[in-house]
């Protein structure tokens, strides 16, 4: 049982490049989330998903897209990276659906630098 | 949307003393309030949580209180130890949409 995993761990992009971050969970959780963490600002919710095939915008969704084609995977895409997207990205999942939230389990994070 | 404010931003205590971190939230529909501990370079780890139908919860040296009327909740750590040094985040959630406070850097001096 690996929990929540993220790929890659580190990445450096040039402005305008695109990339996809992969989050995978093996706990059969319904809810999945993407956050970014910048120094002194805590974690900010980018997008989340309450089930396979569904996504919703969080606090800072601009510049990002997501997809949840399979229950265990949640992808975060950057179509045209900007230096302002330099951050640490955390994925999380939680077990309950049907309108009830619960403990979020975090992945190890992806450190992204955009030059 | 929900707005969570957390105070203080830094807190320094002597080993054995108590530490209190306070958070306020704006959305009265928020129904889940977790606290996370994050050590440098690591992922956030849940230390305690409370739901909107409960006023207080305790787990050994850690306790959380919730005042729904005033829309604030607090983390209490008693008998602090050097290994409690970390950044602590509060959060408020409404049906999956979770908002975090900016964090409190706790330093416990031996």
So what's the overall shape of chain B? Answer: globular
User: Main beta sheet of chain A, described?
Assistant: 7 strands, mixed
The secondary-structure class of chain A comes to: mainly beta
The oligomeric state of the chains shown is heterodimer
Average of the residue pLDDT scores of chain A: 92
Walk me through what this model shows.
The complex is a heterodimer of chains A (115) and B (110). With 115 residues, chain A is mostly beta strands. Chain A has no helices and eleven strands. Chain A has strands at 4-7, 10-13, 19-25, 31-37, 43-51, 54-57, 65-67, 73-78, 87-94, 105-106, 110-114. In chain A, strands 2, 4, 5, 6, 9, 10 and 11 form a seven-stranded mixed sheet that branches. Chain A is globular, with a radius of gyration of 13 Å. The N and C termini of chain A lie far apart (36 Å). The mean pLDDT of chain A is 92. In chain B, the strands form two sheets. In chain B, strands 2, 4, 5, 9, 10 and 11 form a six-stranded mixed sheet that branches. Chain B is built from no helices and eleven strands. The model of chain B has no long low-confidence stretch (mean pLDDT 94). Chain B has 110 residues and is mainly β. In chain B, a hairpin with a 6-residue loop joins strand 4 (32-38) and strand 5. Chain B is 0% helix and 59% strand. Chain B starts with a strand and ends with a strand. The interface between A and B is medium-sized, with 26 and 24 residues.
């Amino acid at each position: 049982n690996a929990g929540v995993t993220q790929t890659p761990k580190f990445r450096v992009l040039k402005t305008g490049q695109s990339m996809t971050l992969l989050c995978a969970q093996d706990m059969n959780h319904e809810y999945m989330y993407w956050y970014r963490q910048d120094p002194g600002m805590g974690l900010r919710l980018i997008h989340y998903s309450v089930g396979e095939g569904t996504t919703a915008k969080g606090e800072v969704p601009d510049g990002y897209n997501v997809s949840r084609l399979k229950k265990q995977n949640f992808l975060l895409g950057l179509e045209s990276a900007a230096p302002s997207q330099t951050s640490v990205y955390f994925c999380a999942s939680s077990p309950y659906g049907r309108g009830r939230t619960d403990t979020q389990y975090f992945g190890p994070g992806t450190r992204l630098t955009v030059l | 949307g929900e707005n969570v404010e957390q105070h203080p931003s830094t807190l320094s205590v002597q080993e054995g003393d108590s530490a209190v971190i306070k958070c306020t939230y704006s959305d009265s529909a928020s129904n889940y309030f977790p606290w996370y501990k994050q050590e440098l370079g690591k992922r956030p780890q849940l230390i305690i949580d409370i739901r909107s139908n409960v006023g207080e919860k305790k787990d050994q040296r850690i306790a959380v209180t919730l005042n729904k009327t005033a829309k604030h909740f607090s983390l209490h750590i008693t008998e602090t130890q050097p290994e409690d040094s970390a950044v602590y985040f509060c959060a408020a959630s409404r049906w999956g949409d979770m908002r975090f406070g900016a964090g409190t850097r706790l330093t416990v001096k031996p």
